[in-house]
Amino acid sequence: xRSALAACALLAAQHAFGLDALSARADxxxxxxxxSGQTDAFRAWMVRIIDAQLVAGPTPxxxxxxxxxxxxxxxxxxxxxxxxxxxxxxGIGGRLPPELELTPEQxxxxxxxxxxxxxxxxxxxxxxxxxxxxxxxxxxLNAAAPGDLLLFDQGDDQHLMVWTGRYIAYHTGTSSNRxxxxxxxxxxxxxxxxxxxWQPAARNPNFLGVYRLRFLAR
Length: 218
Description:
Elements: H1 4-28, H2 36-56, H3 67-78, H4 84-90, E1 113-114, E2 120-121, H5 126-133, E3 134-138, E4 149-153, E5 158-163, E6 168-171, E7 182-185, H6 187-191, E8 207-213
Antiparallel strand pairs: 1-2, 3-8, 4-5, 4-8, 5-6, 6-7
Helix pairs in contact: 2-3
């Protein structure tokens, strides 16, 4: 587990250097970006994939089930081709988002996360996922777009949630035969959560803000 000091350092850097510094870092990242149209399609697919997990339960192909695992799985599945076999296996039908049609240069985006040491891996934890692979957007939830991440610091643990455009989705990090760990809550519900550490509000010191994956166009 990461220490809370790393999360606090991330937040301090945002205030010290501002969004321009984070934008410059993102621009210097050689990771290929999606076009605006691909970004819209990616967001739609990511939300559909999370919806499917909530409705039917986690697919057996999603192995590492925790908050960061939900993000990694949804991102990887959104970036792949969605053929008939995949749709049937995931119980997804009806009107579908357009395919992303990744270029050869964009294909390596799947299962390819940047680590703090600059290396790449198919696995990344919650804090490193945000620090190395996303850019700070705002402390205000109304600035979030579907697929954006909400980062919470709870001392020795950092936790991710996903804004879907209609509700906030997350995995608790634990599961059992009776509880798969997946949750979907409304903004109103979370803003009135009895444990105020989980409220996605600027006044909450445990809420580090809204973050956006760097390979997205906007």
